[in-house]
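cron nightly-structures :: item 1 of 1
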Amino acid sequence: MGVLYEDVVLIRQPEKPGDPSVITVNCPDKTGLGCDLCRIILLFGLSIARGDFTTDGKWCYIVLWVVGKPTTRWGLLKKRLLEVCPSFYSASVLYSYKPEFQQPKPPDVFLLKFWCYDRKGLLHDVTEVLCVLELTIKRVKVSTAPDGRVMDLFFITDTRELLHTKQRRDDTVEHLKGVLKDAMISCEIEMAGPEVTVCSQGSSFLPSITEDMFSLELPNKHLSGPLGLDTVSVTLDNLFSPGHTLVQILCQDHKGLIYDIMRTLKDYNIQISYGRFYANTKGNCELDLFIMQADGKKIVDPNKQNALRSRLRMELSHPVRISVMSRGPDTELLVANPVELSGRGRPLVFHDITLALKNLDIHIFSVEIGRHLIHNREWEVYRIRLDEAGGSFVPWSGIEEGVRKTLMGWD
């Protein structure tokens, strides 16, 4: 089967102000394609208001109604969406499906190192620049000297794969200087060698925390609130369709909701044959998904059904884990999110954490970002030591609530 390359991804802008833009994807199917597309949409800061998914197992047709913002770079978004669609061989103006038997090599890791004078919102401003430049933050280590100077170590990869060139590095430094201005003392970008990469893994020490924070099981205690378990309903039905298991989900909307569902199904190697999603103006969401296992069969095993139901409820009620605690005389903010089996972390987490703290007028003393294997699952953990003397006093509950609202898109 062939398709015109320009028709693989189409983006139609709204006719009326306030209406959503419509993204259409028409390409060969693969398990996890919906997850990859939704991850990019989340990375660009868009929210999905409605969606339809259809596939025959070989070819898929996806329509997403998304709410953008004035700064959305639609041309770049289309390019990134095209890159995750199954590859095509060119034949004149037509492209044929190319089996994905080649695994891409891991991207090169670079070390962005700079000294600067501390100020409110510094880390968020730097993070925002890196996001605009499509530089992905893999690890961060930030420390503050007694004289108020800050040393930032960002371990980054380049989506454009150009950071090995002098022009790309110089452009990055100039963008950072434009934001930091006189606060910047020095800035360097270099390839991260093996010895540097080891140092980027972060401390193996994690503070004493409750088991519930990293639990993948439903807690015994009753949880309430916007993302409490009582607001998430997941039902599985094998009677409605002769060839598929119907999954029906009712829940409260949050930023990255569809991504959270898709990454869970991708990790379980489950295919969606047909899906429909809708979020109303009150923030309530309804999803109908007709799914099957990799072998093309329904999910009939009660244990597998319960495992999938429980995991979906947990992922939708706790897509990120947040805790504020004492670390000696200091206060530490701990944020964690599960990593996809493909190795990808949740987009924009550090960006949103720094934005929330900036809005709360809380200064950051030090940061460590690392990955840890907890309960046989890899987690991306953000450990942020707060400088409560340098900003406004906010109670722990206020810090946790402010960070959660920003991460969930409720601010």
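cron nightly-structures :: done
The radius of gyration is 22 Å.
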